[in-house]
């Protein structure tokens, strides 16, 4: 599980609408990676909308925002189009990136245990180091907190 000041685990993942994104290729731009459980669920939709609403401010600061879940590229594309999302959504169907970032966890809902993505966000500086980590994210106000943190880079 990466910690603050560690080099962020690199990845190349397919994105909504086609193509791939490689994390290390985005340097020296800072990057926000937000991991979310599933497309088109209420909490995930609110989180993705919040980042989209603040996207102009992230972009003005030179920050790239990326969403990651295990949903397929096709699901991501439909999710993006349905909710007019502005940032790339990356598909980690085999969980390798989720596991590298320590967000693939055992969860418990209504007494049933299952594996899933723990809603988490990573702020990565222009050198590719993790500058800040938010785990077990609560959606209200989160995108604003992340935007504020980018101003300390």
What does this structure look like?
With 153 residues, this protein is an alpha/beta fold. It has a single domain (30-150), classed as Glutaredoxin. Helix content is 29%, strand content 27%. It has helices spanning 42-60, 73-83, 96-100, 142-150; strands at residues 12-14, 20-22, 31-35, 64-69, 89-91, 104-109, 112-117, 120-124, 130-134. The strands form three sheets. It has a five-stranded mixed beta sheet with strand order 5-4-3-8-9. Strands 1-2 form a two-stranded antiparallel sheet. The model has no long low-confidence stretch (mean pLDDT 96).
> How does the overall form come out from the CA principal axes?
globular
C-alpha-based Rg, rounded: 14 Å
CATH architecture term: 3-Layer(aba) Sandwich
- Please give the oligomerization state of what you see: single chain
Stated plainly, the CATH topology is called Glutaredoxin
Count of alpha/pi helices: 4
Distance N to C terminus: 22 Å
Strand content: 25-35%
Major sheet strand order: 5-4-3-8-9
Instruction: Report the order of strands and helices.
Output: EEEHEHEHEEEEH
- How many structural domains can be distinguished in the coordinates? 1
Estimate the helix proportion, in percent: 25-40%
**Under the CATH scheme, which class?**
Alpha Beta
Sheet having the most strands: 5 strands, mixed
Domain Thioredoxin: 2-153
Subunit structure: Monomer.
Protein name: thioredoxin-dependent peroxiredoxin
InterPro entries: AhpC/TSA, Peroxiredoxin_AhpC-typ, Peroxiredoxin_BCP/PrxQ, Thioredoxin-like_sf, Thioredoxin_domain
């Amino acid at each position: 599980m990466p910690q603050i000041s560690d080099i962020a685990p690199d990845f190349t993942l397919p994105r909504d609408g086609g193509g791939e994104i490689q994390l290390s290729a985005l340097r020296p731009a800072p990057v926000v990676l937000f991991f979310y459980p599933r497309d088109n669920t209420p909490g995930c939709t609110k989180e993705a909308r919040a980042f989209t609403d603040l996207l102009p401010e992230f972009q003005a600061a030179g920050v790239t925002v990326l969403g990651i879940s295990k949903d397929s590229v096709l699901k991501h594309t439909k999710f993006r189009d349905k909710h007019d999302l502005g940032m790339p959504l990356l598909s980690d169907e085999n969980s390798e990136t989720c596991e590298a970032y320590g967000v693939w966890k055992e969860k418990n809902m209504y007494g049933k245990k299952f594996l899933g993505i723990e809603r988490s966000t990573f702020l990565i500086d222009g050198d590719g180091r993790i500058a800040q980590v938010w785990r077990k994210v609560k959606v209200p106000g989160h995108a604003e907190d992340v935007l504020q943190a980018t101003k300390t880079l």
